[in-house]
Amino acid sequence: MQKIPTDELNALLEKVDPDQLDAYLKSSKKYMMNDPREFSFYVKDLLNEKRVKLKDLYLLAGVSESYGSKILSMEKHTKDRNLILRICLAGKFSLEETNRALKLYGMSELYAKDPRDACLIVAIHHRIYDLLQIDDILEKRGFQKISAEENE
């Protein structure tokens, strides 16, 4: 999937008539999320770029190697947003990268109006990727921890 800002695609869609929809979809196919494995490709590419080894990622994310690899390869699907967030944190993803990974996985992006998400956003902006430190930030404010111990 090639990148193009969503607002550019939205601007194009404003000008598309319903009878032009097929032509738009065909011409914009390279910008669309069509492959359910897009999450896997995206995360693995980022990890390679950041030189993060999968073994280290699973350890830092608090997930077993076998389960983590099944999640990353899309062999198994989870509804646990915290697990995907832990993978992103273990990979030291930026906020933009984390939100894209969440979106590709089919989950909601971190949302600034959600108090717990706001804590996570601040942690990411300050490059706090250690789950224990993030748990501390969350717990001090009365929110559920992100660590694997509480969620699995």
Quick one: how many beta strands?
Answer: 0
Topology order in helix (H) and strand (E) letters: HHHHHHHHHH
Structural class: mainly alpha
Portion of residues in helices? 55-70%
Our measurement of the CA-to-CA distance between the termini, rounded to an integer number of angstroms, reads: 33 Å
Number of helices: 10
Low-confidence stretches: none
Pick out its properties.
globular; 59% helix; 152 residues; mainly alpha; single chain
Any overview of this molecule?
This protein is an all-alpha fold and 152 residues long. The protein folds into 2 domains: 1-32, no CATH class; 38-151, no CATH class. 59% of the residues lie in helices and 0% in strands. The protein contains 10 helices and no strands. The longest helix has 12 residues, at 38-49. The chain is globular, with a radius of gyration of 17 Å. The two termini are 33 Å apart. The relative contact order is 0.11. The mean pLDDT is 88.
In short:
This protein has helices spanning 6-14, 21-27, 38-49, 54-61, 65-72, 81-90, 95-105, 115-125, 131-140, 148-151.
